[in-house]
Amino acid sequence: MSVAEIVRDDEEERGFKSGVPDKVLHIDDVHKSFAGLHALSDVDLDVRKGETHAIIGPNGAGKSTLLNVCVGRIRPDRGAVVFDGHTLTGKSPHEINQLGVARVFQTPEVFLDLTVLENVMVPALSKRDGHFRLNPFRALGQEKAIRAEAEEVIASVGLAKHLHSVASSLSRGDKRRLELAMGLVQHPKLLLLDEPTAGMARHDTNATIELLKKIKEAGMTKVIIEHDMHVVFSLADRITVLAGGRIIAQGTPEEIKNNPKVKEAYLGEEQV
Ligand code: ADP
Ligand code: MG
Fold it and tell me: Which member of 117, 125, 134, 157 has the lowest number of beta carbons within 10 Å of its beta carbon?
């Protein structure tokens, strides 16, 4: 580690402790067991503002569980998650979303009976007017602006030609893009992505990498779980490696590539 990095780390540490977080997301000593199986043990992780942080690891390593802890779907047995000065542990997924955390799940969660445009308008409306569920008429006055924004985001993920297609008719890859658009339209402070290119052909994967690069240039902080090392090494500023629910390595892509523990964890998978 260079002197400059040590100084920066030290400054960030102090910044975080004095309540000026360079670290947008702070995962502190998280544990989670499922019926005796330790899905997560002693997990500590900091995500810095603006970085793309990849979480990798063999199947069953606990990656999705960690993401679900962050979004409030799974309550950890121990430990806490702090985002932007707010403790997320104990909050509902909706409350966490309202704080500026959006996610794209491993299995796309879209409204299958709605069109692409309608799917993206739902989170856009929700973001503009947190009460729209109670009073849908409050949001109607804003519909035109919201629709224009939704169309723009849909075009940016490459789904313009499917604007009025019903989501159930989309390919799996396109459903994932739709879910990404549903996340982006919220202008989140933190975007969590669980294997965003799973089920995509190489061509679509490359298009997604380009899109995620653009999002990165715009300064959005991202945590990305990814199995495809081409995607990881194209996008990540830093990488955390999980195996058997524990962090076995953390560092830059270069450091991770050359880490023998990581190679060992992946033996048989031929990924690194
Ligand atoms: P990854 O995303 O890294 O493949 P997961 O976080 O999905 O791994 O799973 C980690 C471990 O926890 C696995 O052994 C999995 O079977 C187990 N697990 C995950 N979710 C549950 C659950 N809801 N109930 C029981 N076991 C679970
Ligand atoms: Mg998973």
Answer: 134
